[in-house]
Amino acid sequence: MKHLDRVAKATTAVACIFVIIMMLHVSADVVARTFFNSPLIGTTEIVAAYYMVALAFLPIAWISRQRGHIIVELFTSHLPKRKLKALDAFAGLVTLGYVCLFVWKLFEIAIEKTHIREAWESATGFIEIWPSRWIVPAGFLFMAIYVLIQTWRDARAAITGEIPEEEDRMEVME
C-alpha cells in the first residue's frame, strides 16, 4: 500500500508541476505575442494535449485514495454501518467494473495512437500528441487499484461486522 501511496503522491506532484509549466508556457506565449508579435508555435495544442490531460487525470489516484469522489448520502445516512459498508462494497464493485473496462479501452486507444504516431496540426507543422494518450489509462489504472483495495475493505467490514474507525480506514498521507 505504501508503494501505491507514493505513486499517488508522485502523480499528483507531477500534475502540480504541469500547472507551473503551463502557466510559464502560456505567459511566455502572451509576452511573445504582445511584445514581439511572434507567438510561440503550438501553445494551444500543447496545453490541450499535454498540460490539461495531466491536470485532469494524474491526480485521480489521489482523489480515489482519499475517497474524494462524489457520494450522495441522502437516502443512506440513516443506515447501520454494516449495511452501509455492504452498499459501499457493491458500489465499489460497480465502479471497479466500469473503471477496468475504461482502462482496457483506453489502453487500446493509446496503443493505436502510438502505432500511428498521432499528431495535431499547428500553424507551422505537426505536434505529436500520442505520448499524452498514455496519461489517461495510467491515471485510471491507479484509481482502479485504490477502488479494489477500498472495495475489499468495505466487503470485509460488511461480512465480519468489524467496522474500522474513520482514521483506521486509510491513513492520511504524509
From TrEMBL:
InterPro entries registered for this protein in UniProt: DctQ, TRAP_DctQ
GO molecular function list: transmembrane transporter activity
GO cellular component: plasma membrane
Keyword Cell inner membrane: yes
Annotated ranges, domain Tripartite ATP-independent periplasmic transporters DctQ component: 22-156
Subcellular location: Cell inner membrane
A Gene Ontology biological process term: C4-dicarboxylate transport
Primary site of residence: membrane
Membrane disposition: Multi-pass membrane protein
Record field: transmembrane: 7-28, 48-65, 86-107, 127-149
Annotated keywords: Cell inner membrane, Cell membrane, Membrane, Transmembrane, Transmembrane helix, Transport
Domain of life, source organism: Bacteria
Keyword Magnesium assigned: no
Function noted in UniProt: Part of the tripartite ATP-independent periplasmic (TRAP) transport system.
Family: Belongs to the TRAP transporter small permease family.
Assembly notes: The complex comprises the extracytoplasmic solute receptor protein and the two transmembrane proteins.
The protein's name: TRAP transporter small permease protein
Organism, scientific name: Pseudooceanicola antarcticus
